[in-house]
Amino acid sequence: MKLILGSQSPRRRTLLSQAGLDYEIQIPDADEKQITSSDPETKVIETARLKSSVLKIDDDAVLLTCDTVVSHNNVIYEKPDTVDDARQMIRTLSGSTHEVYSGVILKSRDFEEIIMDRTEVTFFELSDEEIEAYIHTDEPYDKAGGYGIQSFGAVFVKEIKGDYNTVMGLPLSKVYRALKKYNL
Ligand SMILES: Cc1cn([C@H]2C[C@H](O)[C@@H](COP(=O)(O)OP(=O)(O)OP(=O)(O)O)O2)c(=O)[nH]c1=O
Fold it and tell me: Rounded to the nearest whole angstrom, what is the distance from the C-alpha of residue 68 to the centroid of ligand 1?
């Protein structure tokens, strides 16, 4: 079996490579706005499934698609569209704890497997100056919740409970373990 990563995310590529997995890439072009669930687990799974539904799966392939959202006080945060969105997200996350959900669909012609993971992240209290400086960089805009734990956003983090890689966009150890079952 060969592994296809259905993602344009550079982080997901890096993480699969870090685990020594070989893969080919396909880029899903799905209209994610059509997934409107307000439950983060449902949202990431349905979105990952939507991404897999727009890609072709060969007989000998397993397709991996994934979605990541941030949830804070029952509100879901995806990628900020504007500077104002990013400001509002980082202000909300400042000085409190949020959850990052990453949901994966592994799909072949014969099966579908769901992998779900959740990591809790607590931010230090951030100053207005810190937030303004950050939202005027490129970093927030391609990331759920408007920050990157693997980049400058690391300095916002006081505590993390769970798999760090789930925050970066792929629950790597769970994915690795699942893929071993299919000899990938
Ligand atoms: C919270 C957080 C998210 N992210 C990223 C992971 C995901 O790539 C992104 C959430 O967007 P997604 O829609 O999950 O993924 P994507 O659009 O980047 O890629 P694709 O749909 O093609 O697979 O946010 C970080 O890189 N660091 C972080 O700390």
Answer: 6
Q: Which CATH architecture has domain 2-181?
A: Alpha-Beta Complex (3.90)
Domain boundaries, the chain: 2-181
Residue nearest to atom 21 of ligand 1 (CA): 7
Flag whether pLDDT at 32 surpasses 90.
yes
Q: Are strands 75-77 and 97-107 parallel, antiparallel or unpaired?
A: unpaired
- Alpha-carbon torsion (14, 100, 37, 88), positive or negative: negative
Question: Tokens for 24?
Answer: 């080919």
pLDDT tier, 135 (very low <50, low <70, confident <90, very high otherwise): very high
ipTM over 0.90: yes
Q: Give pTM, 2 decimals.
A: 0.97
